[in-house]
Specification:
Structural class: alpha+beta
Distance between the termini: 11 Å
Number of strands: 3
Radius of gyration: 15 Å
Strand content: 15-25%
Shape: elongated
Number of helices: 3
Length: 106
């Protein structure tokens, strides 16, 4: 994973990308609470979220002139998530309706 992608991974917070799950409503108040909230964990660690980070990383690398000659594909590895403000994920919604988190490379 290149340095530009690390920067973008750290900058990605509450993104609005899809993952449909119909489990019960959840509120994650702290990072420690996250492990007990399966719907939120599934959303944050979903393929669409990783794809979003990948696209953001490639875009930012181009802006900063990094890895312009790279022929291999970037990879986005699992990351550590820190809850900055409570995440509210109602059972009838596809995306959290409020909350803020920070994604960091593992």
């Amino acid at each position: 994973m290149n340095r530009g992608l690390f920067v973008i991974s750290a900058a990605v917070t509450a993104a609005s990308f899809m993952l449909s799950n119909t489990s019960q409503a959840e509120t994650v108040n702290t990072t420690a609470d996250l492990q007990n909230n399966k719907k939120t964990v599934a959303y944050v660690y979903s393929r669409p979220m990783f794809e979003a980070m990948y696209r953001l990383g490639v875009e930012q690398d181009r802006k900063f002139g990094l890895k312009l000659d790279c022929k291999s594909q970037y990879t986005v590895k699992p990351f550590i998530m820190i809850v900055l403000s409570p995440i509210d994920f109602p059972d009838d919604k596809r995306h959290p309706i409020k909350g803020l988190w920070l994604s960091l490379p593992a």
